[in-house]
Design goal:
This protein is an all-alpha fold. It has two helices and no strands.
């Protein structure tokens, strides 16, 4: 069973979770231990989003490149 850190989630779901984490952090109601976990999760989600964006950009570039060759 995948852990929450390694689960495969969509870009939209990751972005939504990041926004929730940000709202939680801005509320200033998190204890130190919870804050630490939220920051770790946010770092993971940010990396996941960057990877998905990079991958999608590469796919689009490839499609456009192939299309221009036709």
């Amino acid at each position: 069973m995948p852990t929450k850190q390694t689960e495969n989630i969509s870009y939209a779901a990751a972005l939504e979770e990041l926004e929730k984490i940000l709202a939680d952090m801005e509320s200033n109601e998190l204890d130190l231990d919870t804050l630490s976990e939220k920051v770790k999760r946010a770092a993971f989600l940010t990396k996941l989003c960057k990877t998905k964006l990079r991958s999608t950009t590469e796919e689009i570039d490839k499609i456009l490149e192939d299309w221009q060759k036709e």
